[in-house]
Structures are given as structure tokens and as C-alpha cells.
């Protein structure tokens, strides 16, 4: 592997890692703060991708589709939180596993009824369709850099929100001691709804910006969900910082594994997970 | 974490009688049902064995595995690889070999996963099962995504599984044997330690029990029994593919255990039958005008699962036991 090729793989691995981070951050945030394990998290990723395809094929603009899709998805997430998830915060994990597994089925079938079972492509907006030449015959697509940029911006936004704002303070306090925070006059129900909406928004936006390069297909949610689990397990449950580092690690192992060891590439990330578990059974950054 | 829900260890007398009648009905079934339904019931019995093996972890020990199908599928693959191209394999040694292979895999994976707790355990078991899934899915030599055909059912002197009736009764015998074995285990000192771990693992450790060893033993045993079911599945369907080890298969097993009622192995049996029956029912729904209800069986299944979590968290046996207990209380 020469330098230019290595650079391309490196950029790809960072881009994939950042995308995984957006998903895993929502998953681990919802778990860390509300204690809910959400198997349907991958379905929001799928929803995002389908919304991007559907709205952009109707409106002709991916930017418009992403803006509209994000609003729709967040409203949908808030509705779900109010109707279902709210009642499961205090119940045991098994109930949550079952509820969200049932939701996977419902979402998959509703997707099939609304939008069919075909694979769809989403075209990259003209402004981002260029490539940056690295050597004479190797170049890197601008869109992938754009994706990484969006992910980094959202990661920084998330960090600032949680560590620097009043709302973030309440979120952290609520995760630390729910009853005490409530006694101090914080509306914990609203805080939970906001955290849930943030998680949904991150997953949906991830699905939307990934749609042009991954295409849009049934069951895309379950695949990504399992990767998210691996990231959360490696990073340590409830830790957003852990999720970032683990996501970049998983992105690198997966991307370079496919190039260097194609025969076992499907298993490499799981081996990484097993190794981390042997060393630190609670993940790298247990809260 | 599910201590409160699984106090179904002892069933009311009325329910025990009903279950015994159910067993008699199973024994008589091939003489009354058609071949189609007899093979459907055989499949339900196989899944019941699978569900019981998971209940040892989920209902008894309090460990919810979202990767139990890995061991089910592994034993099926073992049968596929052990069956020669042109003749049936011997039941006597392929069965123990497949069960041992599943048990060994469970021992190795268990070594990693049993160190974790609660939600972590759920995620890690799922991830390891996925690793096994990709091992087979990505490798053409192991059948790849298409899977492998098993052209001949295993066979041994009296037990030629190629014969439908023999297969049915063989499966029924295994079902009963596994049930009796697990019931015996539940009330043995080993089973009591597992139940203690479910209720409070810290206390068990404080009392001097090496809980890691007990949990690993339970995980290995559950994996081996899941392998027993997977072997029978492979023999019955004559076909094995990676989907059998996938996330949905594992989740279905959890669902069966919940649906029947956790902590009593009869619950797993009832749950497996009920779940498979519903699946069959949903897939066979008639069209309503242009709306093809049967095609959208996943929607009904999803709604049903959500309904069970909301309204019957103790499962069918729990529901029945509750009703019977209330009746008994009225009489007194």
C-alpha cells in the first residue's frame, strides 16, 4: 500500500468512524441518561436514509430533504417518546429489548408498505460532487470530506451542549441522580424527551448524509445497530467520549481490515471487541 | 434484574394437569393430524427445546442472551459437515459431536461474555453471535450466505430419522428428556445457586460461591442444549444457513420464553408453540381487498410483541397461574 492509497483508506476509516460515532453517541446517551436500551436505534438510521431518498427525489434537492427530514424525524421521535418509551424508563432491560425489537418489525414493515423493498440510490449534490486529486491517478471525493465535516461539527456541538450549557448541566444532573434533580425543580420528563430527540436526530441525520454513498435498502438499520453495539461495548456504556474513540477504532479496523485481510474482515471488529473485553470487561471508558 | 417476574418455578396443580394432557395430545397427534401439521408440530417441539435451553439462562439465572441462536446454528452446521455426500450419517456419533461442538463454542464465548452484566451482557452476546454469523456468511468454504443442504437425515438401527413418524417421536422423546433433565437441574444445588445469582449475585459471592464458574457452566450447558435443538432442526429441514444464527432467531427465542412465562421450562414449551402458531397464522392472513395482510406479517408480529410487553409481562403460564390462584383463593 503506497502513501496515497494509505491516505485514502485513512480518510475513509475516519469518515466511517465518525458516522458510527453519531449513531453510537445517541444510543449510549439514551442508555446512560434514561437507562433504556433501544434496539430500534438502527431503524432511525434507516428512516433517515429513506427520508433523504424520498424527499430529494420529490424536491430535487438533498439539502432541502435533509432539513425537512430532520424536522420530521425529530417530531416522530418525540411522539414515540411520549407514547411508548416514556413508560419504559423504569422497567427492566428485558422489557425494553422486547419493546424495541417489536418496533423494529413494525418500522421495517411500514417502510415496506410506504416505500417498497427496492434498493434506491441518492445522488450527491452538484456542489459536492467533485474530487480532490491526491496523485496522478488517485483522488478523494469531496462528499466524504463533507460527511466527516458534518459529523465533527455535530460532535463538537454535542460536547458543548452537554458540558457548557445550562441544559447540559441538567442532563448530567438527571443522569447522576434523577430524584434529587427533580426535587430541585428540574422538569426531568422534558429533559428526557429532549435527550431522546437528540439521539433520534443524530441517527436520522447520519442515515441521511450516508445515503448517497451507502445507497438506501431494507434492513440497513440492523446492520448498523450491531456495529453501534460493538462501539458502545468497546467505549464503555454511557460514555460519549468512549463512543468517539471506540468508533474511530472500529472504523479503522473495519476499513483497513477489508483491504489488508479481506478473508476475515467481517470478524475483525468483533475480535477487537473480544480483546477489549478481556482487558477491560466494562469497556475503555466506563462512566 | 428479572427476579420479580420469574416466580413461576412451581405451577398450580390445575396447570400441571393441563400440561400433562398437552403432552398426551402431542403423543397422539401424528395419528390424527395430517403430515403437514405433524411436521409443523415437530418443528415446534424443536424450537421448544431451543427455548428451554435459553430459559436456563434467562428465566433461571437472569442472563438475557441476544445471541443464543449462534449455538443452535453451529450444531446444524456440524451435522451438515459430518454428513457424507452420498449416504446418511450415523446418529450415534454425529449427535454427541454436534452438541459438543455447540457446547465448546459456548464455553469459549461464555468465557468472554459471562464477565459482563445486565445490558452489557445483552449487547456482548449479540455481538459474539454476529461474529459467528459472519464467519459462516463470508466464507464460501463454510457454505457462505447461501447455506448448505443436508441431503440425508442421520440414521441409526432403530432410529431412521428419514421416517417421519420416527422423527416425530424421537423429537418428542428428546423434548421430554430435556424438560425432565432441566426440571431436575432447577431443584438441584446447582440450580439453586443459579436462581440465587438471578436474585442477587453480590450476595451469592459474599456467601462464597464462585459465581463466574456457575454462570459459565450454565452458559455452556445452555449452548449445548441449543445445539441439540439445532441438530434436530438441520436434520428436519435438510438445510442450514447463516440466518439461523442471526439476530432475529435469537430474539425469537427470547420472545418464546417471555410469551410462555419465564423460570418454568414448561413456559418455554408453551411459548414456542404459541409463537410458531401465531407466525403461521399471521403469514396466512387473507387479503382484505387490495391489502395483502399476510404479506405484512411482520407488522402484526411487531404489534403483538409490543402488546405482550405492555399487557402480559408474565407470559401465558403466568396469566393462567394468576387466574387459577385467584379462583383457589375464592374457594377458601
TrEMBL record, chain A:
Alphabetized UniProt keyword annotations: Amino-acid transport, Cell membrane, Membrane, Transmembrane, Transmembrane helix, Transport
Bilayer disposition of the protein: Multi-pass membrane protein
Domain of life, source organism: Bacteria
GO BP annotations listed: amino acid transport
Cited InterPro entries: ABC_transp_permease (IPR001851), BCAA_transport_permease (IPR052157)
Subcellular location: Cell membrane
Matches recorded under Pfam families: BPD_transp_2 (PF02653)
Subcellular location, principal: membrane
GO molecular function: transmembrane transporter activity
Residue intervals passing through the bilayer: 16-40, 60-80, 142-162, 193-212, 224-252, 259-279
Any GO CC annotation of this UniProt entry: plasma membrane
Signal sequence coordinates: none
Record-stated family: Belongs to the binding-protein-dependent transport system permease family. LivHM subfamily.
Name the record gives this protein: Candidate ABC type branched chain amino acid transport systems, permease component
Automatic annotation (TrEMBL), chain B:
Keyword Thylakoid: no
Signal sequence bounds: none
Keyword line: Cell membrane, Membrane, Transmembrane, Transmembrane helix
Localization (cell): Cell membrane
Membrane topology type: Multi-pass membrane protein
GO cellular component terms, semicolon-separated: plasma membrane
Main location: membrane
KW Membrane (keyword) present: yes
TM ranges: 64-85, 91-112, 119-137, 165-182, 212-233, 253-279, 299-324
GO MF assignments: branched-chain amino acid transmembrane transporter activity
Name of the protein described by the UniProt record: Candidate ABC type branched chain amino acid transport systems, permease component
Pfam families: BPD_transp_2
